[in-house]
Amino acid sequence: MSAIALDLADGRTISGACDPQFAGVLAEFRTNFAERKEVGASVCITHHGRTVVDLWGGLAKPDTAEPWTRDTVSIVYSCTKAATALCLHMLVEQGLVTYETLVGDIWPEFAVGGKEATTIGMMLAHTSPVPHVTDPIKPGGLADWDYMTARVAAEPAHWVPGTRQGYHGVTYAWTVGQIVRLVSGMPLGAYFQQHVAGPLGLDFHISLPEAEEGRVAPMIAPDPAEVNFGSAFFRAATTQPGSLPNLFLTNLGGADFNSREIHAAEIGSANGITHARGLAGMYAPLANGGGALLSADRVHRMGRVSAATHSDAVLFQPMRFAMGFMTSTDNRATGGDSLILGESAFGHVGMGGSIGFADPALGLSFGYTMNRMGAGILLNARGQSLIDAAYRAVGLTSDASGAWR
User: Fold this and answer.
1) Predicted TM-score of the model (pTM)
2) Is the pLDDT of residue 227 over 90?
3) Containing domain of residue 206, as a range?
């Protein structure tokens, strides 16, 4: 790779390394700062196990002009769901549980209120009937594992298990995370550290040690002018109290995701902290047959589309999910939010626009993190432009079908 050291017009810099074949990714990364209001960010790509892009730049903390460095990390919100799902797939691989296992066999308290027929596979694929909890979450509740698992277990089913797809934007931390904890006998964050992040050498945390807090780039809220308040999701979220979109955005117990309390907690749906290198590194084995984590057959199984709908019960738009991962979802023609990947790719977006994924057909893994959040519920132009450039670099020519080919 070629070393990169670029000065931006406003005094910020871009650093790192980039293989000449992926120069288009560097160009889009630079354009994100120049034209798309990027503040601080990182992007990393591996191809057939070799790192071909590792870039970072801008400001981690604009208030103090602290630069975004190689070791700057940030919260990646729902990208964490992929890490949580990966842990459960590893337990399935070990034969400790199956996708067909009833949740109640592992977690008896959950098997009430119409949820008795829920399976582990439904938990992974967002067809479990607990997309959120209806009654208000207590202040600080998201950081209280026992409180939240009790709330999820007691919540009546929102539909017959397996009959609807509804994004578990918050509750995934405990629907899937509690299964990991009960089956493995370890807290989710510890299991991820011991069996994934540690062996792969990843700077990726679910429950950040206090000594690492100074490296975290605080998140910057989206510009309200960029929010599509006319979308079905935001109309419901802002005008229909108690609706699933409204609960998803507002019933969070007042959680401040820039706080030490949230960074220290175990919220396997929303509080993973890493950089692009951590995301790309987690997906690299999955892009290359599973590596030491999983068999190739397991990777193929978990990356296949397992649930798809014209109207997700929470996001109010078409969505396609694998077992714990998002797959290419093209809503451009209807004005919805999209994620355009290769057809074999699977990964996860984080609120505001962070993204990690694997594309096994190409041996490609990808990670992008940033601190200035976008306003949509999937990707925005900053992340998608980097993905598009990566696919062009490996010879793909069109995304007109809804997936890169």
Assistant:
1) 0.97
2) no
3) 2-75+199-393
